[in-house]
Protein: 3-dehydroquinate dehydratase
Amino acid sequence: MPQALLVLNGPNLNMLGMREPATYGHETLADVEALCHAAAARHAMTLEFRQTNHEGELINWIHQARGRFAGIIINPAAWTHTSVAIRDALTAAELPVIEVHISNVHKREAFRHHSFVSPIALGVICGFGIQGYRMAVEYFGQLQSK
Ligand code: DQA
Structure:
């Protein structure tokens, strides 16, 4: 049975491509989704890709992922810096988590330097644009082929 990954995106990421292109680039979230599916297919993995602007919805999705996915790739967007609830949900899911940010948050405003998610993540990828998502999928791909 192919292993499945869950890719989750937080608030405002539906605006990718239109939103602050100097920071986030011109690619859309549909481009990110296509990139993730292509990377997963190379490793014979399947992938579910979602975005929400509602914190409770993201928390429900994380709860439902428990036992159903090999791992979670999450760009929590602004909730990275604010949400204990998302961190607690990820802990409760008991799945390996890779945190992804399109921009290098450490080069930006001080309030973006702290992440509630990083301490419970397997790893963090930031600053590589949308390629960071592909890198995260590749990591899970090489883990399962070991
Ligand atoms: C982001 C960085 C966050 O600080 C910001 O709030 C976002 C996107 C990124 O992908 O670079 O919405 O997570």
User: Anything to note?
Assistant: The two ends are 16 Å apart (CA to CA). The first helix runs from residue 21 to 24. The chain is about 35% helix and 20% strand. Helices lie at 21-24, 29-42, 55-65, 84-93, 131-144.
